Structures are given as C-alpha cells and as structure tokens.
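#structure-requests
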Amino acid sequence: MNDEFFRSKVVIVTGAAGFIGSHLCDKLLELGAKVHGLDNLITGQESNLSEAKKNQNFSFHQVDLNDEQATLAVLQKIQAEDGLDAVLHFASPASPPLYQRWPTQTYLVNTLALHNLLTWLKENVPASRLLFAGTSEAYGTPLEHPQKETYWGNVNPNGPRSCYDEAKRLGETICGVFYRDFDFDTRIVRIFNTYGPRMSLADGRILPQFIKEYLANEKLTIYGDGSQTRSYCYIDDLVRGILTFLAAPDLAGETINLGNPHEFTVLETAKIFNEAVGRPDDDFQYLCLPKDDPTRRQPDITKAQKLLQYRPTVEFRDGLKLMIASYKKEN
C-alpha cells in the first residue's frame, strides 16, 4: 500500500459506523488522513467509532444520504472547511435480514444517493475520486466458478435479496457512466465474504450467527445440507486491499474483486468453529436453505494480484480466533 498517499488527505467514509466502514476509518487515521465519517445509524453502531473519535483528525456526521438536502449541506461544509480528496461509499445495509428490513433505504442509498453524491463531486471537486462498495452478490448464484470480474452474474431481479443485489449492480452502472461519460474517477470493489470484530450479531451471516448461537449455548444452525461454499476474508486483509486500490494511480474506471479465494463448505466452517471454541464438531441443527441463498462463492483475485500485488495473509482459523475473542471480551 502507498501509505504516503493518505498523509494529510481528506477522505469521506459513508457508512462509517458499519463493520467495514469503521475499520476503514481507523486505518485511514493511522495512515495520517483526515476522515469525515457519515452514517444514519439505522444499521451501523456509533460504538464502532469509539477509537476513531479519540483522534482529532476524525469528525462524525449523522446524516441520511437518502436525504439529498441534508447530505449536500454536510458535503458543502466539509469542502469549505477542509477540502476533499476521496470518498469511500460504503453506506448500505449489507446483511440479508437487515437489508430485507430496510429495502427502500437499501436500494436508494446504492443508486439515487450515489448518483447525487457523484453529481456533487463532479461539479465541486472534479479532481477527487470515489470508490464504490460493490459486492460478490452481483454474481448471484454463479454459473462460473470461481467468479472473475468479467462474469456478468446470475441474479434474481425480483427476489427477497434483489433490493441489495440489483441496487449494487445499478450502482456499478452509475459509476461506469460517471467514469466514461463525465471523466470522473470512479472505482468499484466487489467484496466477498468478510469477517472480523464489530460485525453485528444480528447480521444473519454465517460467522456472527455462529458466535451468537455459541454465546447463547445453542446448537449451530446450518441451512440446507451445508454443502454450499463461502470464502472468508479477514477484515484487515480487505481494508488493506481497498485502500491500496483507492491510492493506486491509473486505475480509474476499474472493477476489482477483493476477498480470500480459500473456499470452505458451510459444514466445514461449522466444524472449524466448534474446534475453535472447544465444542463437539457435530453439535448442529439443520434448517431449510433460504430462497436465493448462493450455493457457491469464491473470488478469482488474479486481477487484484496483478494490479495491486494483493494477497490475503490471515489464515481463516487464526482470524476466526481473533473474531471470537473480541466478542468474548465484549460479553
């Protein structure tokens, strides 16, 4: 990573109180950036920013990006007082239970709010850049495995997950228009399964769900027969990849997968989890697989390796122990 790029830069992180957003804020501050965190707190937790708030170079703005006028007022204030170099747009519910609870807010913040943000940046800070948090869910239930950036996906356009999946796909379209037609520096990162401290136990995804059940002394829930696969990237590896991408010269308009290509079945994941906490490896309950739940998920990170020299370094068992320990400390 080009650490010097961030020294004294002014960076906005939307969704700053979320899992990934808060870790991005911490790392940016560590690298010497001045950070403005924006969040409406419908799914983010302000407590995730407790370390960031100790830093004089951090400012928090509680604002709903779907409220155009309120957002423009915040952007204008930041620009007038500090200037602006880059935006990391991570404002969106990301867990299935939460984006299904907030479907309208989810599709708007990934589309109309993104359009409004890019329009303002193009007109007021044309030399800045924006990195959009895309998702591996853009690939849907993939017919290609592992998934390359060139794969167009196999997504249900009107299912229970479409408010997120299709909104992220349209968000990519919007970024592409601003890059090709308006010559604005947009970049898209497609994020694969990420884990680590600060994931909400209400998230619904596999690892926080396992931790929630473990802390309640319940059996781990496996949906379907457990043969579906996931590839887990520790948060520190993801943040390093995101910031390397943001800082890299000559990558405007690019879309890059970030994640860990090591693939595990859900059943393997559950056994590794029980091993980590000292429980029997068959202490499970089985439920029906939810509709549109992807059966396979594994990133092809060849492009990230070539353009960013990116490679995850945290082995799953090690990262899982760190994550579990963080929740034990809180509870």
